[in-house]
Design a protein that fits this description.
This protein has 369 residues and is an alpha+beta fold. Helix content is 18%, strand content 29%. The strands form 6 sheets. A 6-stranded antiparallel sheet has the order 1-19-16-21-14-13.
Length: 369
């Protein structure tokens, strides 16, 4: 529904020559009249510049692999094909103030260590042998695994397999950090880190799920999760077990958040991530919320209806839902489940008291397409 601005309480000044001359005089002093822009900068409801977009993995994969021959890891720093929203190319964002891209690492390749103010996360799409070192901890990850690189932690990546490349999805809050003029970047003084003796020590320590370290875990004071890697197998098992016991969300199916095992909160202060399962033939109801979301199809195929448009997806595809856009999901199979990985800026929305959510009120909860 479109609301009219021609009501008491909204800016509705009719310009005349005297006012236009006044505006020009204000401009000479780097000033302006609020009422000329008030309705644009304070809309009735969110009007994101981002548009729903789907990036097909089958189309992108050959181009991502081609980058292996075109640029070296040392020259590129990170060999990534970034995914940009048609209306957010100005800030290199996939949706809202979130960045994403597909990074590829060739067999035996390693990237140099660095750190930045932006927080990062990884979702492995394909390949065996991928690893990352985060503040000296080496993490080995495989397809479907999720890992985090919190802001200002030293990190580097590589592929120790001799058989083929590894591709993972990067997710970062770079546009958000840049919007606050708060970004920094630094190259490691030794170019590479010296990894600790125990690989995946955070997973070994904090990855027991319902068991929480006692007597030493409570010394963790950093604002992000001490668990840096979340494997696919226990994640999928948890979703399947929950699907046996609960109906799940009417809007997202059986959905779980990757969480900080010490607090139960989001893995990082600016971004959170989820994995959701859609049962065979399941179609969710539509809802909308503040906050932007980037999805990666972890398993299966189906479609989502976003702002009245249908987007068909299959494993590996990436798509986005802009803030305050109606959206619903459907599993296209009657015999197998489908899983969607996603990351978002919900922690920012909630910490700033911007969070709002509502259900689609008409047509039994489904959008017309």
């Amino acid at each position: 529904m479109t609301l009219s601005d021609d009501v008491l309480g909204r800016a509705r000044v009719t310009d005349n020559e005297e006012l236009k001359a006044f505006y020009r005089e204000l401009a000479t002093h780097e000033a302006g009249a609020l009422w000329t822009v008030a309705n644009d900068i304070e809309p009735w409801y969110p009007r994101p510049k981002s548009v729903p977009t789907l990036w097909r993995y089958a189309d992108l994969r050959p181009l991502v692999l081609r980058a292996l021959d075109l640029v070296t890891g040392d020259d590129a720093g990170r060999r990534v094909v970034m995914l940009t929203n048609p209306e957010r190319r100005d800030v290199s964002a996939a949706v809202g103030l979130l960045y994403t891209g597909l990074q590829v690492m060739g067999p035996g390749e390693s990237m140099t260590a660095h750190r930045h103010q932006a927080s990062a996360l990884r979702f492995v799409v394909e390949g065996q042998g991928a690893w990352t070192v985060v503040d000296g901890q080496k993490l080995k990850v495989g397809p479907g695994d999720f890992a985090i690189t919190p802001n200002w932690t030293w990190h580097e990546h590589g592929n120790e397999s001799a058989e083929g490349p590894c591709i993972w999805q990067d997710g970062l809050d770079i546009p958000l950090v840049n919007a606050f003029d708060a970004n920094f970047y630094e190259v490691h003084p030794n170019v590479y880190q010296e990894p600790g003796k125990v690989e995946n020590w955070s997973l070994l320590t904090y990855g027991a799920g319902q068991l929480r370290p006692y007597g030493f875990g409570d010394t963790w004071t950093k604002p992000y999760s001490p668990l840096l890697a979340y494997p696919w197998e226990p994640t999928y098992e948890a979703l399947r077990n929950a699907a046996k016991a609960i109906d799940g969300s009417p809007y997202d199916g059986v959905i779980m958040e990757y969480s900080n095992p010490l607090t139960g909160g989001s893995v990082m202060p600016t971004m959170s991530a989820h994995m959701q399962l859609l049962r065979p033939g399941e179609a969710t109801l539509a809802h909308r919320h503040t906050g932007s979301v980037v999805y990666n199809v972890a398993k299966g195929s189906g479609y989502s209806i976003i702002a009245g448009r249908r987007f068909d997806w299959t494993q590996g595809d990436i798509f986005c839902v802009p803030s305050w856009a109606w959206h619903e999901h459907a599993n296209g199979s009657d015999s197998d489940d489908a899983c969607l990985f996603s990351f978002n800026d919900f922690p920012v929305m909630r910490s700033l008291a911007f969070w709002r959510e509502e259900a689609y009120p008409d047509n039994d909860g489904h959008q017309p397409v």
